[in-house]
Amino acid sequence: MAGSVLIMLTGGQLVRGPDRWWLDPHLPITGSQNELVLYCGMVALAVAWIGLGRQARAELVGPRTLWVVAALWCLPLLLAAPVFSRDVFSYFGQGTILHLGLNPYHDPPTVLGQVGHTHVLNAIDPFWRHTTAPYGPLFLDVVSLIAGLVGSAVVLGAQLVKLLGLVGLALLAVFVPRLARVHGADATRATWLAVLNPLVLFALVLPGHNDLLMVGLMVAGVTLAAEEHPLMGIALCALAATIKIPALAAVIFIAVTWARSAAWPRQPVIRLAQSAGVALGVFVLVSLVTGVGVSWVTSTLFSTPAKVHLAITPATGLAYTAFALLRDVGVHSSFTGLQTAFRLAAGVISLLVALELLRRARRPSMTLYLGLALVAFAWGGPAAWPWYFVWGLALLAATRCGRQGLAWMAAFMVAGAFVVKPDGILVFSLESSPYVMAFYAAALGTAWYVWRRLRVADGGDFAGTGPALGRREPLASRSGPLAAESPGPLAPDSRDTLADRAGSRSPSALVKP
Question: Which SS3 state, helix, strand or coil, does residue 420 take?
Fold first, then answer.
């Protein structure tokens, strides 16, 4: 909490803009000293998180204790100035556009200067002033209500938008332990890993990114689906997609997994139709209530992230590396053209990986494969901002990922929290792309080697996708819409389901208590 307070006290001096944040004590130190104190607070909080993980592993704390810790750590961050990103001011500007009766999917923030809201326009980062909204209508409608409440009080509006993240954080705190219990994982460890990690605190809670609200709703939906309430889960995940579109992947995974568990021939079609009807109903209802119609379904949802060029994005990093190598050997090339080609290739690969994971997904493994698919989309997207990986990591934290998988995720969450500078610029310049790509290659090679060794050592069950050991029950005793209901001889699809439930454990693993 001391680290969080240090961040709160120094954040106001590090956020550049025309308006001073309401909580800015103006400490008698220089700008560079402010930044040093901020990083001291971040390191203190990261070290505390690691120490808390040791307590959780020793079963000295439980999920409810972690909820209290999360509240104490997050309160100063929620009140602090939005360090590491000024997106919260863009949210408020787009909500103001909607409140004024304009369409943020057609009208960029520059329109605010034409309708007497120059003060709001000046708070938005100049880089995004000519870009239409890439977010879902539900989120912008909520922000428009805030804009109607506070008018042109930009700082107050931004603070209220930041507080929306409380909803997402609360949903994670409630549903991550439940999802972990469904998969036979440690609920305390899952809460520690998904809710309190530095990546969530520094990249979502502190700057107020709306990804936190989307992830909270999505995890709640996946949990309900795993608890055999698939239509309720689809409805919540569709609602999350009206915050930000990546949650649509959860709708597809839940629908396909539920349909695949059907017992008789026509039931998969019926279940898919029911799933599509629920999702479409949520989209239509939100579109009508917000008054934007279908105009929010535009290419902007995908093209806006492509405006930034990040060295840590594989497509951009590879494109710049190829461009630099060709330039060094005297071959003229276009960085823009190379980047377009690599982005297309990365997008296709991500989609193919997601489709393969969807093909393999069954009820016990749905959360794992959905989490991996979302991580693949984050890697293969046009901009791999570190907080995008929370989409999948929040789900993976609730699976039985093993000690090595836990260590990899924890290391990424700490490292990812420090790769963006307080002004929102990436620590690594575009010119450092070759070194970043070399690091990726080494890391992937090491991960592949370790995974193969562990897979052999664990009898092929490193992923831990089967049900909790000691809780297996006869197929006939299972009930609910996601249970396999096939009596008599097993159809091929039913055999696949049973194989996924059982995994490929060694005989010794099956007799563990």
Answer: strand
Contacts of 393 (CB under 8 A, 6+ apart): 193, 194, 199, 371, 375, 409, 412, 413
Q: Which residues pair with 301 in a beta bridge?
A: none
Residue type, 194: A
Alpha-carbon span 100 to 446, nearest angstrom: 53
Q: Report CA-CA distances (Å) from 6 to 25, 156, 213, 507.
A: 11, 22, 25, 53
The string of pLDDT tens digits covering residues 237-289 is 999 999 999 999 999 999 999 999 988 888 999 999 999 999 999 999 999 99
Q: Where are the domains of the chain?
A: 87-163, 301-457
> What are the helix (H) ranges across 58-86?
63-79
Q: Which residues lie below 8 Å from residue 301, measured CB to CB, with a gap of 6+?
A: 134, 245
Q: What is the C-alpha to C-alpha distance for residues 235 and 251, in angstroms, rounded to an integer?
A: 8
Q: What gap in Å lies between CA 510 and CA 450, rounded to an integer?
A: 24
Residue where the block lists tokens 């009930």? 479
Angle at 59 between CA 53 and CA 62, to 5 degrees: 80
Instruction: Please list, in sequence order, all residues whose beta carbon lies within 8 angstroms of the beta carbon of residue 190, skipping any fewer than 6 positions away.
Output: 176, 177, 179, 180, 397, 398
> What's the distance, CA 188 to chain centroid?
20
Region of 82 on the Ramachandran plot (φ > 0 left; ψ -120 to 50 alpha; else beta): beta
Taking the C-alpha atoms of residue 28 and residue 31, their distance in angstroms, rounded to an integer, is 10
Tell if the pTM clears 0.90, that is, is over it: no
